[in-house]
Write a structure and sequence with these properties.
The longest helix has 24 residues. The protein has 420 residues and is mostly beta strands. The two termini are 35 Å apart. The chain is globular, with a radius of gyration of 23 Å. The protein has a single domain, classed as Porin. It is 12% helix and 49% strand. It has 5 helices and 20 strands. This is Porin. Its main location: membrane.
């Protein structure tokens, strides 16, 4: 019985997509619907315990005792299936967008789709109003048009790690060189302005209705969980500059909110591009202390998880990323690209709950290179290498010490992608 239910669930999404496309193609309700997808597969060599050291094991002195052997295997790099369409109304254009992710490499026959996007947009000459699950506008401000956002293996970015570090760590952390940082956000209400001579802005709030939603991050407040505002300027030459702000309380009720500012500048042509972007911010809550690897957890063991908001705690972080690409042939089908990143996070107690005057500092370094070749506009092969290092230091009342053993990891990937 369970197997049959699981099979019906896996068949439901393709059936819905197929029905939607057929109805759209015959002009039901004057709507236009397109189906699209990506299959993204790679052969990856990395640590068995994962790219990020959250699962690594440390001894009582903070030395790594198990980070897993290096292993190779076929992995999915973000395959997806979606539909997007629009309907012309009297005063607006209605845009609808649904997208699901799936693992094209798994051998698990019970594997299902997971929702990536799902929103409705009303658009006219005065701008666009969007509701649902969307791409994080702050991330879009920082990373759109950068090599990091276009890398086939989703490279880490120090600016993303720094932002996630300040939002409780579960959305990224510098001492784990993890930059997941809420790529997409649900329960969103977004306004995007029209463009005036290359300028436009967007404002968004995330509201999860605390009493009704089980979301582990956005189940903290009765009204607005996150707020972000971003200003963009694009010149016809290919130059652009973007700035943004994101703030919110994703910690325990009553904790201090995190505040992060971002800036992105760049220049892009059909043959080459360069981009510099970064983020800096702070929070004064306790929930980020001890988040990350076991070194940090052990150091802040008497603080971690406390539902308290005493003064004397401050967490600051910043990250900077430089990326570039160049198409090396006249057909513009072969591209080389790379990135260099640096991040820093400090967690400090000054006459706080335990009056220990302690501080943790994490320094992150990342570099990555890649090459890709397009067989067509929809099919390409690629190879990428990414190296990451974190140096940690801890201070008590009288002493400061560095761990001589830095946290290091790297991964090598060779892959193929087809868009349809």
């Amino acid at each position: 019985m369970t197997t049959n239910i699981q099979k019906r669930g896996r068949l439901l999404l393709p059936l819905v997509l197929g029905t939607t496309v057929i109805m759209g193609s015959i002009g039901i309700a004057s709507a236009q619907t397109e189906i699209y997808g990506q299959i993204r597969l790679s052969l990856e060599n990395s640590r068995a315990n994962g790219t990020h050291p959250a699962a690594w094991k440390f001894d009582s002195n903070g030395n790594v005792i198990n980070k897993g052997p290096r292993v190779s295997g076929m992995k999915d790099q973000g395959s997806r299936l979606g539909l997007i369409g629009q309907e012309e109304l009297e005063a607006f254009t209605l845009i609808y967008h649904l997208e699901w992710g799936f693992n094209a490499a798994t051998n698990d026959e019970t594997s299902t789709f997971n929702q990536r996007l799902g929103y409705l947009t009303l658009k006219n000459g005065y701008g666009a109003l969007t509701v649902g699950k969307i791409e994080n506008p702050f991330k879009q401000m920082l990373q759109v048009k950068t090599v990091t956002s276009l890398s086939n293996a989703n490279w880490n970015a120090a600016s993303m790690s720094a932002t996630g570090d300040l939002f409780q760590g579960s959305m990224g952390s510098i001492n784990n060189f993890n930059s997941s940082m809420m790529f997409r956000v649900g329960h969103a209400l977004l306004y995007t302005s029209p463009s005036w001579n290359g300028f436009n802005f967007d404002v968004a709030v995330i509201m999860s209705q605390k009493s009704d939603q089980p979301d582990y991050i956005f189940n903290k407040r009765r009204d607005v969980d996150l707020f972000t505002a971003n200003l963009n300027y694009f010149h016809d030459s290919g130059a652009y500059i973007k700035a943004g702000y994101i703030s919110g309380n994703t910690e325990k009720p009553g904790a201090k909110a995190a505040h992060v500012w971002g800036l992105s500048v760049g220049y892009v042509t059909p043959q080459w591009g360069v981009n510099l972007y970064g983020a800096v911010g702070e929070t004064k809550g306790l929930a980020t202390f001890g988040v990350g690897n076991e070194r940090s957890q052990n150091y802040w063991a008497n603080v971690r998880g406390l539902n308290l908001t005493p003064g004397g705690y401050k967490h600051t972080a910043y990250g900077v990323d430089l990326t570039a690409f160049y198409l090396i042939d006249e057909s513009l089908m072969t591209k080389v690209y790379g990135s260099i990143s640096y991040g820093n996070a400090k967690k400090k107690e000054s006459n706080g709950l335990f009056h220990q005057n302690r501080r943790e500092e994490n320094k992150l370094n990342i570099w990555a290179v890649g090459v890709e070749h397009k067989f067509s506009q929809r099919t390409k092969v690629w190879a990428e290498y990414e190296a990451m290092t974190v140096k940690q230091s801890f201070t008590n009342t009288t002493n400061r010490y560095y761990h001589k053993q830095d946290l290091k990891n790297n991964r090598l990937l060779i892959g193929m992608r087809h868009d349809f």
